[in-house]
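Example record

The entry below shows one chain as it appears in the dataset: sequence first, then structure tokens.
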Amino acid sequence: QVQLVESGGGLVQAGGSLRLSCAASGGTFSNYAMGWFRQAPGKEREFVAAISREGTVQYYADSVKGRFTISRTNAKNTVYLQMNSLKIDDTAVYYCAGRLGPIIRYDYHYWGQGTQVTVSS
């Protein structure tokens, strides 16, 4: 069973950038499709991005397409979320998630503890 730990969150001004990282341990990382989700105060958790086991396919929510990039380095058991042109609406707790099998936008079984991203005006 894989364990996931996110890092890289923080406070940034609108228009700025942040890079989130998620380190995996306890499993064969390349067997897991990986995703990023977020939850803003008072809202449900929503899909942000996902990447296939080999890193060759990526999915994005429409709200982040063109601004966020998901990537992974299997040799380092790490998945990343590069966030550019950040908006106030991007403020949320960001969660890393993994699932055994192919890439999809839902049905993730393993979750990190989350990292806070706050975008200020």
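Notes for this example: The mean pLDDT is 97. DSSP finds no helices and eleven strands in the chain.
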